[in-house]
Design goal:
This protein has one domain: Rossmann fold (3-Layer(aba) Sandwich), CATH 3.40.50. It is 38% helix and 23% strand. The chain is of the alpha/beta class. The chain contains eight helices and nine strands.
Length: 182
């Protein structure tokens, strides 16, 4: 069993790529926990939704392998979710922020990390507009574009860097090829 991780900035296509991979029975999601509200775009089994109080109770009991605040919400993955995923065949996927990968690697070496490269500014802006991001969020994300990629390249995590500037099938094909799948 392998944990397949997708990392990249907002608008790089992580969820779209994951949705395509989930069409195969060889791929499923590791369920993480969040305090944010569900979104229509969330992937099947991507999150368990809890109140902040419930989240902090799990954290207090050392139930999470990692936690991270983001945009006023909290995210984390339980040790039990990782342990369960490691017992299954196939690829168990996670969409993660860069700072989580070293923590995950310290827990298990059964990780295939992929970093989805930031597309050109005009492509990124179009994607963020199409998905309905606010003008303020778009401006902030464009200003910070490329920062995670630079950090990932210098992190020591053995990412496989994937371009996602054209049809989504090309990016999915790059991942499948890297995994040795047709």
């Amino acid at each position: 069993m392998v944990l397949l991780t997708l990392t990249g900035e907002s608008g790089t296509g992580k969820s779209t790529i994951a949705r395509h991979l989930l069409a195969s029975p060889d791929f499923s999601m590791v369920t993480s926990t969040t305090t944010r509200k569900p979104r229509a775009s969330d992937l099947p089994n991507e999150y368990a939704y809890v109140s902040p109080e419930q989240f902090f109770e799990i954290e207090k009991a050392w139930g999470f392998i990692w936690t991270a605040p983001y945009a006023g919400n909290y995210y984390g993955t339980k040790y039990s979710a990782i342990d369960t995923a490691l017992c299954f065949s196939g690829y168990q996927m996670m969409i993660l922020v860069p700072q989580v990968l070293p923590i995950l690697f310290s827990y298990t070496k059964n990780v295939e990390p992929f970093f989805i490269r930031t597309p050109p500014r005009e492509v990124l802006e179009q994607r963020l507009r199409q998905r309905g991001d606010s003008p303020e969020d778009i401006a902030r994300r464009l200003q910070n574009a490329g920062q995670w990629e630079a950090e990932a390249a210098a992190s020591g995590v053995p990412y496989c860097f994937i371009a996602n500037e054209g049809p989504i099938e090309q990016a999915v094909g790059q991942i499948l090829s890297s995994l040795g799948k047709p």
